[in-house]
Design brief:
By secondary structure, the protein is an all-alpha fold. The chain has one domain (2-131). 81% of the residues lie in helices and 0% in strands. The protein is built from 5 helices and no strands. It has helices spanning 2-23, 31-61, 67-80, 83-89, 98-135.
Length: 138
């Protein structure tokens, strides 16, 4: 499970590199410049906050009947709640504009969804591979 979560975090980081510059448009900088600047923030957050709360979401959802639906809802919720530590750490403009906070919430929501989808996809692939692997063992 740890390997699957790490690969999910890597996939989420790569996707965020290409998606996030569209959320943080800046006419003074190029797309790649914005992408690299945002990657410096998003990758550590994905590999710490994302891994921690993705594992927590799966742990909470494991006993529910609709495990995948609850896990998705929790991933989206925890992703949106990234605004709480972001505000506590003082990220963003000094006056904490409402629009900037909404961009952070939206970005967290998107990342939570991407992380969930990447993890679900990898879980299905691993499940299928082990199913077929066991079929042909002697």
């Amino acid at each position: 499970m740890v390997e699957r979560k790490l690969i999910s975090a890597l996939i989420t980081s790569i996707v965020s590199f290409f998606i996030f510059p569209f959320l943080f448009v800046d006419s003074n900088n190029s797309f790649l410049s914005i992408a690299f600047q945002l990657t410096a923030y998003t990758v550590p957050v994905i590999f710490t906050y994302g891994l921690l709360f993705s594992s927590l979401a799966d742990w909470i959802a494991k006993n529910w009947k609709n495990r995948e639906g609850i896990s998705c809802l929790l991933h989206l919720t925890f992703g949106s709640l990234i605004i709480v530590p972001a505000m506590l750490l003082g990220w963003g403009p000094e006056n904490h504009l409402l629009s900037f906070n909404m961009v952070i919430v939206t970005a967290g929501f998107i990342l939570g969804g991407i992380f969930f989808l990447a993890d679900l996809f990898l879980q299905k692939v691993v499940s299928r591979l082990t199913k077929y692997e066991n079929r042909y063992e002697l």
